[in-house]
Design brief:
The protein is an all-alpha fold and 75 residues long. It is built from four helices and no strands. The longest helix is centred in the middle third of the chain and has 17 residues. It is elongated and about 40 Å long. The chain starts with a helix and ends with a helix.
């Protein structure tokens, strides 16, 4: 992820490649499947938290690398 998006994150260039809203949808499907199969996926849950926060902020159209914004706000 950082090799592909690292410079974009540093430049705060979150033009859509893979939109946050689509990434969040796919991650929700994965988490629902994990729950059905009693699989614990804490890293995926954390990523989902960041994506959901972006959506709540109205950033669903940004590239999912905009998770960096949420992570930086948390630190």
């Amino acid at each position: 992820m950082l090799e592909l998006h690292g410079q974009r994150i540093l430049d705060e260039n979150y033009a859509p490649g893979f939109k946050t809203k689509l990434h969040a949808k796919d991650l929700r499907i994965a988490l629902e499947s994990a729950e059905t199969n009693a699989i614990n996926m804490p890293g995926t849950e954390l990523s989902d938290h960041y994506l959901q926060t972006l959506l709540e902020q109205g950033n669903g159209e940004l590239d999912s690398s905009a998770m960096a914004k949420v992570i930086l706000e948390d630190t």
